[in-house]
Structures are given as structure tokens and as C-alpha cells.
Design a protein that fits this description.
223 residues; alpha/beta; six-stranded mixed beta sheet; 6 strands
């Protein structure tokens, strides 16, 4: 049995600006850097043997900041970067403001492009497409490490992690649109030798719980 930690990168500059990011290599905002440091606090005391990231700097930098705080050290872990773990490619929407797209095409179409399982944005990927590139990498590279008893951290993106969570938590295509992964927050699965996994949080409520926790923390710091 091994532990798999999942970490979505901290807020990026384009998250802050409400723009579709996808494969565009955008850096972390100041808030995103702070979120990465908070994730490092979560990882203190965790046993980590290997780090996996996408090739995009916001995921790599989140791991650097988090592992610096946690005491593991970014350069002390074997590290593998692969575009299989990249964010969903948003095609023609990349760089565009989500609110403006909603005004132009309607909120219903915007929701379908953002949250549906198998509807592609123009010249882009659906969540299904993302899952279809994440899972071969999972089976060929990541899962064998877990089966060997290695404890892993994957620092990646909202949709590449949602694709993985869909399989690990056995969410259906109808259920997965309601699952959202918060930025800069680490959570984990215990993975059995047969590949089955149990999450340490309720994925249906995680985003709401983290949002509430951060609002309460902000209120305390401002009082």
C-alpha cells in the first residue's frame, strides 16, 4: 500500500484574470504562490519518494514552493515531467476571458465547454480527451511506482487531476462535471497493490470546504 498526493497548482495569473489557460505557460499569481506555501504545510511529515509534474511552469513552481516549505526539497526527490499531465487544451479559447465568452456564446455553451465530459471547445480537448492521455501515463509510469510501495506527489492541473480522480473515485461522466479541485490544496489517496484507491477527503465537498476555510482565514487576518 502506498500514498498518492495530488496537488493542483496555485492560482495562476490567468486564473486571476478569469482567462482560459490550457497549455499556455502562465506563471503563478501572488495568491497562487501563497497557496503553494500553504500546501507545503500540509505536506510536512508526509513520506514522499517521487515527484511527478506536468511540463508547465505553474505546476513545477507550485511543487518547488510546497516542497521547500515541507522540508522535502524540490531537488531531493526523483522528478518526472510529462505533458501527459498538462492541463486540458482549450484550443481557440485559450487566452480568452471566460465572462466575455459567456456573453458571446451564452452561459449554457460556456458551461458545456468548461464542465462537460465529452464536449470539445473549438480545436481543443474535452475532459474525456484529457483522461485518454492521462491514463496511459498513469498505467505505464505512475501506477507501477505505487504498486512498488513508492509514495508519490503529482503536481498538475484542474482537469488532468479531475481525469485521474474520475477513475480513482469511480465517478461517472454524469458525476464528474460537479467535481472541482481547488488550487494549491493537497489531498491524498491510499492506493492498494491491486490499484484500487481510497481518498482521504470527500471529493464532492472538497472545493466548498477549502473555499470556506480560506474565507475564514482571510476574515481572521483582516480583523
Amino acid at each position: 500500500m502506498a500514498k498518492l498526493w495530488l496537488l493542483r497548482h496555485g492560482e495562476s495569473e490567468w486564473n486571476l484574470q478569469n482567462r482560459f489557460t490550457g497549455w499556455t505557460d502562465v506563471g503563478l499569481s501572488d495568491r497562487g504562490k501563497a497557496e503553494a506555501l500553504e500546501a507545503g504545510e500540509q505536506l510536512k511529515g508526509a513520506q514522499l519518494d517521487i515527484l511527478y509534474t506536468s511540463v508547465l511552469s505553474r505546476a513545477i513552481d507550485t511543487a518547488k514552493l510546497a516542497l521547500g516549505v515541507s522540508g522535502h526539497g524540490f531537488d531531493n526527490l526523483p522528478r518526472f515531467e510529462d505533458q501527459a499531465l498538462n492541463e486540458r487544451h482549450y484550443g481557440d479559447l485559450q487566452g480568452l476571458n471566460k465572462a466575455e465568452i459567456g456573453k458571446q456564446y451564452g452561459q449554457e455553451q460556456l458551461h458545456k465547454w468548461r464542465r462537460s465530459y465529452d464536449i470539445q471547445p473549438p480545436n481543443g480537448e474535452s475532459l474525456k480527451d484529457t483522461k485518454d492521455r492521462v491514463m496511459p501515463y498513469w498505467h505505464s509510469k505512475i501506477l507501477p511506482d505505487l504498486k512498488a510501495g513508492k509514495n508519490l506527489l503529482i503536481s498538475a492541473h484542474g482537469n488532468s487531476l479531475r481525469a485521474l480522480v474520475m477513475v480513482l473515485s469511480d465517478f461517472s461522466p454524469e458525476e464528474i462535471p460537479s467535481i472541482e479541485i481547488p488550487t494549491g490544496y493537497a489531498f491524498s489517496y491510499m492506493v492498494q497493490p491491486d490499484g484500487s484507491a481510497t481518498c482521504d477527503v470527500n471529493m464532492r465537498e472538497l472545493n466548498t470546504q477549502v473555499k470556506k476555510m480560506r474565507e475564514e482565514k482571510a476574515a481572521k487576518s483582516s480583523s
